[in-house]
Design a protein that fits this description.
8-stranded antiparallel beta sheet, alpha+beta, 8-stranded mixed β-barrel
């Protein structure tokens, strides 16, 4: 069946038209063949009309309404070609037009039912249909008599209208309804309808009326498909009864009045059926609706309740019927409902009511009410409830989320400003309000540029349209570097961060949000740190890093402009002594003053930088003549050298400077700095407060120094350093009491004195190794000497660095332990200059060494620059008087000799004295008479190697020689 219908619909709609042709031809031929009626009688055609109507309902719904006039014309022509009677051709044409009109009316009525236009409009449609049917019937009857001389019976046409209108009810059938067609109820309805046929013998009108009533009543028992099938059966039965009424004498024809009554009865029956169905449908929809519906009367008692309401209340309708709705509402909600009713409101709404179910569950609902007044004093109120629990939960969740969002935006340390699409302010969090010193309500709706005027910190140029650019580009944009804002109070804040577009769920941009941080302090700190990274913290001068950059720029600029510039390396002479004697605070003050004087003596285009310690570098830019450099340096030395007053003490400060000139002495910053440094060291050696220009000879000196350092390393490797010893005797008895160990370097060419390699060894950091090698070679002989003279002491010269070097001292003590030599046989000598240069640290180190048993002697006493008050704070055993004081001895006046003064001072301190450089017997006698403890010099013995000094120690040679000289 489905395949047949599909083929009919899609492949050959013409076939359905052909079927209609066959039906009408068959009806006409059947009447003529069996002589059932006059060939001109059209009654039999009504059966064909019903078939045509059913075919139209099944297959022609999508076709144009004019198919029926076209079909009438085609069918009339076809019958004429077959030479059928004219009356039959006319009646067939009239019947097809009637089918088309009924089909049109049925379609409109179905459309009105679907649209639920109301009973009044539907009744009007039926009334118009009846009037139009009667009018068409009269028009066709009179028209045929007037134009073709054949009068058609009006009652027959009205009967055709009635039967077809009755059959058209199938057009209202919903094909998608489920259910079986054949059932006991359907068969029963058909049997009852057929059983009424005898009524037609008495009154055909009564027969039609009874069957119409049965048809209406059967709707209560049958489903949609069964009712439609019954409709077709009755239509065929009615058609058959019309045919029989014309040919059977027992059945009286209807006539014109009966035909009109039949038409009115069919229309009235269908209208009543529609009313009943609508009421039943409404009742069914109300009762079985899942929506919570309830109807109450004027007293508030429940009249009706939907399934949705009963399910929500968890009860049956019998439990609610006649009960007051207010019993299940809260007192407040019941009062509101009563108040709305008293005020006479026909429609009212309560946004939230609490309804208590039979299980005592509380439901949150919204209430919609419509008061229906039927004007018979029976007023009812239809109430619709809607569960808003999820809505309330969602509202609560949204409220909590909004609160969380507000708390979050209020708690974060960043400022947040939101705008709409027109860049108008919509929101500011507390941080933004604090920065702008305004509340959100004060600026809401104002332009972003008016509320948040951004500008560049350095150029002061305004930064505009950031929100517009962000939304136009649909991207997050970072704020430019050094962005600032100035609020209405005049306060300026440095800010940084970004601005982003805000999107709706549909992806449309609805505004922008700017998130910023107040970086005023951090930016100030960054500037400060940047300044500190490129400037000296003490003097504020550029440091090495900034100087390197300026030197690189100067090289590019000089190469481009074809001019020269000079790099001047400056060092303060003997600054370490000044710093250590007067303290670091005084040294810092001196450096600051020197930096101030250096800046004062230069041009604005020149640069003064501090490299560290007491080293400064000057960049003298744009030099046209070399003579200009002389003028600048002499001016600098004159300004910076001379008297300085620090903590009430007058100091004479000198500077040494080395100069390298671009491009003669180097084409890059590294080479220029190296050469200027080399020239500065040369100036230190030549003369204090002097300057030297770099030349290639200085590089040769550096190379020579490097070569000497390499030779020292080789000398250590081959054990070329030999200890020499000079005797120190008792000033009274001339007995040998001490031996001072002196360093000699035995190379392949010659024996070198200390003045040829000690300075190089100190600079190269090789003094520890040299000293330990000398001690290692001396220990075996010292053990033997101590055996001969138990109290003999070995005097060892050490630098300040060695005395402060724990690893060196540990190796020294390990050496003594290995040879089992007591520290009491060792005297440690340190020059006065080295001592006062590290006074605080040296004091602690010397005390530790003395506690271990070592003796301490201060060498070259009287040659330092410091006050003698430091002697009160030091523990030492011996003062060694420098040779220049011994050479200045005056043999006539004792009170003028500084050597004697030193001896007396030593006595007052309780320490012994050793006079160095005693070359004559007169000097020895004078010093001995003054109370000097010990004597040392060529008068007694020259420095000797181990073998020679061993003989002297073991044989007492010194004492015998002295006796001969003194006598």
């Amino acid at each position: 069946m489905l395949i047949w219908e599909e083929w009919m619909h899609r492949n050959n709609m013409v076939l359905t038209v052909l079927i209609v042709f066959i039906v009408y031809f068959s009806s006409a031929l059947l009447g003529e063949t069996f002589a059932l009626a006059d060939p001109t009688s059209p009654s039999l055609i009504i059966l064909a009309d019903v078939v045509c109507l059913l075919i139209a309902h099944r297959f022609w719904q999508g076709l144009n309404r004019f198919i029926f006039p076209a079909l009438a014309t085609l069918l009339s022509v076809s019958m004429w070609l077959f030479s059928l009677p004219q009356s039959l051709i006319v009646n067939v044409a009239f019947h097809l037009l009637i089918v088309g009109q009924v089909y049109f009316l049925a379609g409109k009525i179905r459309h009105y039912k679907i649209k639920s236009v109301g009973l009044k409009r539907l009744a009007l449609a039926y009334l118009i249909g009846v009037v139009s049917f009667v009018s068409v019937a009269l028009a066709l009857s009179k028209g045929s008599a007037y134009f073709i001389g054949m009068e058609s019976e009006v009652e027959h046409l009205l009967q055709a209208f009635s039967i077809l209108l009755f059959a058209s009810h199938i057009l209202s059938h919903d094909e998608e309804q489920e259910g079986q067609v054949f059932s006991r109820s359907w068969l029963l309805a058909c049997v009852v309808c057929l059983a009424t046929m005898p009524i037609a013998l008495f009154s055909l009108s009564s027969f039609f009326l009874v069957n119409l009533l049965l048809f209406i009543a059967s709707r209560l028992l049958l489903n949609g498909k069964q009712f439609a099938s019954l409709n077709v059966v009755l239509a065929m039965l009615f058609s058959s009864m019309i045919v029989l009424s014309e040919h059977a004498q027992q059945i009286s024809p209807l006539g014109i009045n009966g035909s009109v009554e039949l038409l009115l009865a069919v229309c009235t029956s269908f209208f009543l059926l529609t009313v009943l169905l609508e009421h039943a449908r409404f009742q069914h929809s109300f009762e079985y609706s899942q929506v919570m519906l309830v109807t109450i009367d004027e007293q508030g008692q429940i009249v009706h309740a939907s399934k949705g309401f009963l399910d929500a209340m968890q009860c049956d309708f019998e439990d609610l019927q006649g009960r007051y709705l207010s019993e299940y509402l809260s007192e407040e909600n019941a009062s509101d409902l009563l108040k709305c009713g008293v005020q006479g409101q026909s429609h009212f709404y309560l946004p939230e009511v609490k309804l208590t179910t039979f299980s005592q569950r509380k439901l949150s609902l919204s209430l919609f009410a419509d008061v229906v007044d039927d004007k018979d004093t029976h007023t009812q109120t239809i109430i619709s409830f809607q569960d808003i629990s999820d809505k309330l939960m969602l509202t609560q969740a949204l409220s909590e989320e909004k609160e969380l969002l507000e708390v979050t935006l209020s708690s974060i340390g960043d400022g947040v400003i939101c705008t709409d699409k027109a860049s108008r302010i919509t929101y500011m969090n507390p941080v933004a309000e604090a920065v702008l010193a305004k509340l959100t309500k004060e600026v809401k709706g104002k332009q972003f540029s008016e509320v948040m005027p951004l500008f560049h910190e350095d150029t002061l140029e305004p930064i505009e349209r950031v929100t517009d650019d962000c939304m136009r580009q649909r991207a997050t944009l970072g704020l430019p570097e050094l962005t600032c804002i100035k609020n209405h109070l005049g306060l300026v804040f440095a800010i940084q961060d970004s601005i982003s577009p805000i999107y709706s769920k549909s992806g449309e941009i609805i505004g922008s949000v700017m998130v910023f941080q107040d970086v005023t302090e951090s930016r100030m700190m960054t500037r400060k740190m940047n300044h500190l990274a490129h400037h000296d913290a003490l003097t504020g001068l550029p440091n090495r890093l900034l100087l390197q950059d300026r030197l690189a720029q100067a090289c590019k600029r000089a190469d481009r402009n074809q001019h020269a510039f000079a790099v001047v390396f400056i060092d303060l002479d003997k600054f370490k002594n000044i710093n250590d004697s007067l303290g670091h605070d005084a040294g810092d003050l001196l450096l600051q003053e020197v930096a101030h004087r250096l800046n004062r003596g230069l041009r604005s285009c020149d640069t003064v930088a501090r490299m560290g310690g007491d080293e400064f570098v000057i960049l003298v830019d744009s030099i046209k003549e070399r003579a200009h450099i002389h003028t600048v340096i002499e001016k600098v030395l004159l300004t910076c050298s001379g008297e300085y007053e620090l903590k009430g003490i007058q100091l004479n400060v000198t500077l040494s400077a080395g100069i390298a000139v671009y491009p003669d002495d180097g084409t890059n910053s590294e080479m220029l700095m190296k050469h200027a440094d080399t020239a500065m060291y040369r100036a230190k050696k030549v003369n204090k407060s002097n300057y030297q220009f770099y030349n290639s000879q200085l590089d040769k000196e550096v190379e020579q120094r490097i070569e000497r350092e390499a030779e020292l390393v080789q000398g250590l490797k081959h054990g070329q350093f030999e200890p020499y010893f000079q005797a120190i005797v008792n000033a009274k008895s001339f007995a040998l009491e001490k031996l001072e160990m002196l360093a000699r370097w035995q190379t392949q060419e010659k024996l070198k004195g200390p003045h040829e390699f000690i300075a190089v060894a100190e600079e190269a950091g090789l003094m520890n190794k040299v000293t330990l090698q000398l001690l290692e070679k001396s220990m075996t002989s010292l053990v033997r000497w101590i055996t001969t003279s138990v109290n003999l002491q070995l005097s060892v010269n050490l630098t300040a660095d060695q005395l402060l070097d724990e690893s060196f001292l540990n190796e020294f003590e390990s050496l003594l332990d290995r040879y089992q030599i007591s520290p009491k046989n060792i005297e440690l000598e340190i020059t006065e200059t080295s001592l006062i240069a590290n006074l605080d640290e040296m004091r602690q180190s010397l005390e530790v060494l003395q506690e271990k048993g070592f003796s301490v002697a201060i060498d070259d006493f009287g040659t330092g620059y410091s006050s003698l008050t430091y002697l009160k704070h030091l523990k030492f055993n011996t003062l060694k008087i420098d040779k220049k004081f011994v050479d200045d001895l005056n043999y006539d006046r004792e009170e003028d000799d500084l050597a004697v003064v030193i001896i007396n001072m030593a006595k007052s301190l309780g320490v012994s004295t050793v006079a160095e450089g005693v070359e004559y017997c007169g000097q020895a006698k004078r010093l001995a008479d003054a109370g000097c403890s010990q004597l040392q010099g060529y008068c007694f013995a020259k420095p000797m190697p181990i073998d020679a000094i061993s003989n002297m120690v073991e044989l007492g040679t010194v004492m015998s020689q002295i006796h001969r000289k003194m006598t």
